[in-house]
Amino acid sequence: MSGFSTARQKMVDGQVRASDVTDRRILDAMLTVPREAFVPASRQALAYLDLDLDVSEGGAAKRFLITAALTAKLLQAAEIGENDNVLVVGCATGYLAALTAKLTRQVTATECDSALAAKAGEAISALGLANVACKAAPCADGDTAAAPYDVIVLNGASEVIPEKLLGQLKEGGRLVGVSAESQPARAMIVTRSHGEFGHRALFDAAAPVLPGLEKAAAFVF
């Protein structure tokens, strides 16, 4: 077994399974999708550590792959079906989008850094995942062209209510991500039902805030 393959197995056993992730499809996806393929070469040795991994390459904002455990727990909470239409927001270099592509038929992934969006598309294409469309777009905007979505997954946290994203959910659709509107930050699931949105806290969680989903800076005299 190669070094990365061994590290991948240890990540799943020590970080993901240990976080009560039991969905076999998610475990299999994390065992087969090479996380190191979504990390700059200079940081590939860090690919399987339990941290939010900076994958920025000179962009205007820091961009991250959130921890493997949080990634898996959000995917499990989303209960993605094999025929769902899914939007991944703030995909960075595309790791979360690649995992999602293993679970369903159609994935749209947006990233505010156009250079990273292009890298995400290249990495996903190299893995032969033809059911993902990577697009450069502000995180808060989503992608109306492929809407409405059964599931929207945030690759990070939001300090505000993502109104435009919620508006792109189907009836019965759900959005999962980390809400950092108040402290402590929590993973949340928001479900659309009869035009209303129900919010439910899942567990305490921390993740980098996605660009464009930050709270407006308060005015100080």
Characterise this structure.
- Strand 3 (85-89), helix 4 and strand 4 form a beta-alpha-beta unit.
- The longest helix is centred in the first third of the chain and has 14 residues, at 3-16.
- The protein has one domain (3-204): Vaccinia Virus protein VP39 (Rossmann fold).
- The mean pLDDT is 95.
- The chain has 221 residues and is of the alpha/beta class.
- It is built from 6 helices and 9 strands.
- It has helices spanning 3-16, 24-32, 68-78, 95-101, 114-126, 163-166, and strands at 53-54, 64-65, 85-89, 106-111, 132-136, 149-158, 169-179, 186-193, 196-204.
Concise overview:
By secondary structure, the chain is of the alpha/beta class. It contains six helices and nine strands.
Please indicate the count of domains.
1
Percent in helix:
25-40%
Strand content: 25-35%
Q: Uncertain regions: pLDDT < 50 for 5+ in a row?
A: none
Q: Which features characterize this protein?
A:
single chain; 221 residues; alpha/beta; 7-stranded mixed sheet
Helix/strand layout:
Layout: H1 3-16, H2 24-32, E1 53-54, E2 64-65, H3 68-78, E3 85-89, H4 95-101, E4 106-111, H5 114-126, E5 132-136, E6 149-158, H6 163-166, E7 169-179, E8 186-193, E9 196-204
Parallel strand pairs: 3-4, 3-6, 4-5, 6-7
Antiparallel strand pairs: 1-2, 7-8, 8-9
Helix pairs in contact: 1-2, 1-3
